Hints:
19% helix, alpha/beta, Metallo-beta-lactamase, Chain A, 7-stranded mixed β-sheet
Amino acid sequence: MRVEFLGTGGYHPNERRHTTCIMLPDVGVVFDAGTAFFRVPSRIRTPEIHIFLTHAHLDHVVGLTYILTAFATTSLKKAHIHGVEPTLAAVREHLFARALFPVAPAYEFHPLVDRIEIPNGGVLSHIPLSHPGGSIGYRIDWPGKSLAMITDTTADGSYVDFVRGVGLLIHECYLSDSSGEWAKKTGHSHTTPVAELARDCGAGQLLLIHIDPRFAEADPIDLKKARGIFPRTELAEDLMVVDF
């Protein structure tokens, strides 16, 4: 399974990272639609795409406005947005308010249900996460492989069972350990708890995303420290591709 990290930053883009957008082009799945969503159309391989939103904060949804040209220039026939109802309502009523975006793309909106089938025999599940305004964590299980997408939350161990045994854990790591108290106040994660979570759940690999954009040249994450806790840790970069 091919995973493309189109956007790996948080809050706002910088010269190194766009905001969160992770794509599985072979099955037409996209997690979040941050500023990196402009990279999606050139990677569309399926007649339909399914976009799973973690929440409605602008750095995760603004790219939904970039889809219009894809209907005219690619094989795309349908685009679906999945999320909890408050997130879908915020997108419909605010992001696509006529004064802001007068030509609404032909999205189909779908409130999350307990079990969602993904091409190639996959099953998607989800869990609520702790974050101001709420957030959703996702997991897809295929025969013999699995991945989880966890962002905009504090790595407090409350969802360790949800990600237990996952092959690829994609997890936010917005701040360094020195900013741990600020992470808790803002509903984000820092280095050590994320690495401990990956270790405790028995993940196969940990990829860190949603990095603080203030430090484009030198990320605030202590990768050596994270690897001391969970050796199979990597810091994701924009345009990184992982096959698992």
